[in-house]
Structure formats: C-alpha cells, structure tokens
Design goal:
The protein contains 8 helices and no strands. By secondary structure, it is an all-alpha fold. The protein folds into 2 domains: about 60 residues; about 120 residues, no CATH class. The protein starts with a helix and ends with a helix.
Length: about 180
Amino acid sequence: MKDPKRIFPPLLLLFASIQCLFLGTIIFERANHLEVGLFVLVFLLVLGSHFQTYSSQRFTVEFDRWRVAVWVFFGSFATFGLRNLGCDTVIATAALGLFGGLLELGFKSNAYFRQVPSAIYCGAFISMTNLSNDAGFILLSSVFTCLIFFVSKSILHGVGGRLGTMAFIGVVMAYVVQYGVALL
C-alpha cells in the first residue's frame, strides 16, 4: 500500500476539483451567467494534475466487500423514507446512525456486521441533500456512492470525513448526470 503522505495531496486536489464543479453548477443555476467557465477550467486543471500524479506511480486498489457496500442503499432510502414521513433530516440521519450502532452491538462476534454501520451512515448522508429530490435521484446517488464505497478501502484510508466525502461525490455525480440528461 502507498504511503499515506504521498496519497493525501492528490486526493485533496481531487476533492477540491469536485468542489469547484459543484460550486460552478450552483453559480450557473442561480445566476444563469457564463462565469461557470472559470470553475470548469479550475476543475479540469486540478483533475488533470490529480491524474498526472497517479499516472507515474504504481497504485493498487483494495476492494471492500460488496455485501457491505449495498447497505448504502438501505441508509439512503431509510433516511429518505423517514424524511418523507415528516421526520427532520438530521433526526432521521441520527436515528439511522443509532440503528447501525445497535446493529453492530447486537452482532459483536460477526465481522460482517462490524462494517455495516459505516455503510448505513454513508447512505444516510446521501438523503441529507435537497428536500425536493425524488426517489430516482436518491437511487442514482446511491449507485454512485455504493461504487465509490466499494473501491475506497485503500484509497481513502485514514481520511477524516470519508463517509460524507463519498456521499458528496455520489450526489455530485448524480447531479451531473441529471443536468446532462436535461440538456439533451
């Protein structure tokens, strides 16, 4: 596995580029001006530097178990369902976090259930997005986040805020797909 000190700067650049893309779409949506070009340019430059860093280095990806990653769907749709029943978003997310913790506590001897709470909580972060999002958007975000969760075991090891970052990237990717389809 790579030295975490060598992985952190490229990951920081990747997260910054995704933030620039997200801010660019917000500015474009609110102002309907073409200043978004600046954010797209910064996004492409930072993303290009990220991939240039990895192209010269040997990199291995360790996969998490897919049976754990599918709990992302449960977390996102359970929070979405609680939210639609009138529960506050933060309360719904906290309830799912508590459920995941109790699930782990109930099955202490099973190694599988010790990994499930993080996937549930990651999915709960997905449903903390805009209240007007429908179940289709939550499903698309969950698919992207589940894939990221599946491959992130070695990539995001030791990064604080890993679950929220994965959910954020999944939601941004779903927004990009949604806006891309709307432009067609």
